[in-house]
Specification:
388 residues, alpha/beta, eleven-stranded mixed sheet, Rossmann fold
Length: 388
């Protein structure tokens, strides 16, 4: 009953409540670190399908469907890219970025470029981008730049309208990234990180880059991609694994604010994927995906997951114990399927090898420790070789 009420509330409030990580300050923490939330039940899945049908029916009546905007495209002139460090903040108009960015001292096309896309009502000045930026500075070294797309002028009001406009936002971002390729930017070094609606913007950007250049960007990370109005729709209308060479998705509020469907090469369901320990509000669970990902940048082996068919199988220890992996920023790009793990209820969230089993199974833990140690040894060898 609680999940049903939460889902209906999310649909009703999605156009008026902040949908992004900025609500993290209102979270209520505490709770059992071993708590694994139940997988989305039949009622929730049915409601998800109904919600998708409602979106398809209602948006044209309100004049906010994709087709309504196709011949009268929203004004994209206020979209910007923000480059921020502890010492400076630089803002570039998105359409002018292909000319402006290559002139900047920080721009190095041989290094990795991360681009963050925020969710509904969020913007780069809020805590979500700050959390990610600080993690990049602390954990990824100098040969990485991170920018944030500021689309707040278009997706800060009326969620139903925003779900249509993200298509156009992603298209313009894709055009900008495509225009940077002649300046030496290798598409394989582009990593788009999108939270909520931002995850779908990333998907549309990836589609546009491939359409314009015939090449795919290297990676898209979807942080609890927005669910309402994106459930049970064509892959051309949301994030999908074909949008980049590698697409990994972290689910933390599936079936409520987040998408419950598997859409990436790898889909990671944390604590069951629907609700997070230590969270009282659904917005907290929805935002937690970004906090997990940021922590993984600083602590490469903090989050380990096991391949499994469902949350119930994970809880019962029926997973493939020979198929475990580091997840988060350092996830290997040669794995696929659904992975599960549990976390602590407060920061630091990562529990390493312990997180690969619902109960503290010593056999699973031993395998997890071995994988973690092997990864860390390889990582140390790589960083030593790079520094020398």
């Amino acid at each position: 009953m609680f999940r049903l009420v939460s889902f209906l509330s999310a649909l009703w409030l999605s156009s008026i409540l902040p949908y992004g990580s900025s609500l993290v300050d209102t979270d209520i923490t505490g709770g059992d670190t071993n708590e694994l939330q139940a997988e989305p039940d039949y009622v929730t899945n049915s409601l998800t399908s109904v919600a998708g049908n409602i979106c398809a029916a209602v948006k044209p009546l309100l004049g906010v469907s994709y087709d309504n905007f196709e011949d009268n495209e929203p004004d994209m002139s206020k979209l910007t890219l923000v480059y921020m460090t502890s010492n400076e903040t630089l803002t570039y108009n998105l359409t002018e970025a292909p000319t402006a960015l290559p002139k900047e001292l920080w721009f190095n096309p041989t290094c990795r470029m991360l681009v963050y896309m925020h969710g509904f009502t969020d913007n780069p000045s809020k805590s979500s981008f700050l959390t990610l930026r600080l993690a990049v500075e602390a954990g990824l070294g100098d040969c990485v730049s991170i920018l944030a797309l500021d689309a707040s002028s278009l997706i800060k009001h009326f969620y139903l309208r925003a779900t249509s406009i993200v298509t156009f936002i992603g298209r313009v971002l894709g055009e900008t990234l495509s225009a940077l390729i002649p300046a030496g930017l290798d598409p394989s070094r582009i990593h788009l990180i999108g939270h909520s609606l931002g995850a779908h913007i990333a998907g549309f950007a990836g589609k546009e880059v491939f359409k314009a250049t015939g090449r795919k960007i290297g990676r898209i990370t979807g942080l609890d991609p927005a669910g309402p109005c994106f459930c049970k729709v064509a892959t051309s209308l949301r994030l999908y694994k074909d949008d980049a060479v590698f697409v990994d998705v972290i689910h933390t509020n599936a079936g409520i604010y987040g998408l419950g469907e598997t859409v990436g090469h790898v889909d990671i369901f944390v604590n069951g994927g629907s609700e997070q320990p230590g969270c009282f509000l659904q917005t907290c669970s929805h935002s937690r995906s970004l906090e997990y990902f940021a922590e993984s940048m600083v602590s490469p082996a903090a989050f380990m997951a096991v391949k499994c068919d469902s949350p119930s199988d994970f809880k019962q220890g029926k997973c493939n114990v020979t198929d475990m992996s580091i997840i988060g920023y350092y996830i290997p790009d040669n794995i696929s399927g659904n992975y599960y793990l549990k976390t602590a209820s407060s920061s630091p969230y990562g529990t390493g090898a312990t997180g690969t089993s619902y109960e503290a199974n010593s056999y699973l833990k031993a395998i997890g420790v071995a994988i973690r140690d092997a990864f860390l040894n390889l990582w140390r060898r790589f960083t030593n070789a790079f520094n020398n």
